[in-house]
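Technical annex B. To support the medicinal chemistry partners, we prepared a structural model of the target in complex with adenosine-5'-triphosphate, based solely on the information shown next.
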Amino acid sequence: LYILAIESSCDDTSAAVLHHRRTLSNVVATQRIHEEYGGVVPELASRAHQQNIVPLVYRALAEANIDKKQLSAIAFTRGPGLLGSLLVGTSFAKSLSLGLGIPLIEVNHMEAHILSHFIEAPGKTPPPFPFLALTISGGHTQLVLVKDYFDMKILGETLDDAVGEAFDKSAKLLGLPYPGGPLIDRYASQGDPGRFTFPIPKVPGLDFSFSGLKTSILYFLQRESAHDPEFVEKQRDHICASIQATIVEILMRKLKKAVAQTGVHHVAIAGGVAANSGIRKALAAAEKDLGWVTYVPPFEYCTDNAGMIGIVGYLKYLDGRFTDYRVSARARYQIGS
Ligand code: ATP
Ligand code: FE
């Protein structure tokens, strides 16, 4: 049973071939064009997807060493994401499924981030149901109770910026290039996380907020730079470490609250920010100190990739959850809907 999966929700085009739960290939074309604009330009993204998609699918098939006639189904990202980007993957998947006469399977990108934990990977055991998932990515911050593959409940989410945005916007304030999240992580490893303090927002329940942090960093940098124009340059590592520690603290407080409320202590993270070493360390500490069992996906399944779309395709295939050709892309697409 082979599944071809396509991901094109934002600025990465990706194609993967899965044999049951295992990825035989998972290729990603990252669009560098957006770097010079300091953020993703939707029109440029969809054009680049159009250029990338066919060669990328051929590469995924070649790396998997299979012919397209061996495919059992095609899975694609229906949403959420940029409409123009999603349309490219959606139309491509529809046409190929029609041409090959094999089933089409739509996938919710945010469910896929979570279910990436079920891709077979060396040394990894998937979380047992129910588990808590913290999805931290460029566009989302969600705390989800996962009762089964397709039975998920959002317990809380961000009221404004996503965690990835908080990282990227803070990086921008420090004059770092886009996307700055990974750079903050790198500089933070050389800095003192306790050097500067930023306020932790008071948000009721299990929801999050990150826009206040961005504002307080802005004022902090303006204030300090007024005394010393070279402040950012001299203190870069300490500022990065302090910002990262604040973001991790915000996330961990809510996770602890969710564990206390649900009694579920199997905790998984997913999404691009799951690559962050600060959050990984905090989870490892929670295993030791709080008795949690934590799950962190392999790096290649954290940021956008078609492998995670493929695992959902496989699970839906087993369940007979196929999609008909009237399906259309959805820019906004809540999980579980
Ligand atoms: P969504 O899934 O919500 O549609 P997205 O797919 O654009 O958003 P991802 O690709 O999952 O987002 O994640 C990208 C984000 O992850 C960026 O904001 C990037 O800065 C951030 N990121 C990646 N690596 C790290 C890291 N090591 N530390 C902090 N942030 C990181
Ligand atoms: Fe994503």
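Notes passed to the chemistry partners:
The chain has a mean pLDDT of 96.
The CA atoms of residues 82 and 241 lie 32 Å apart.
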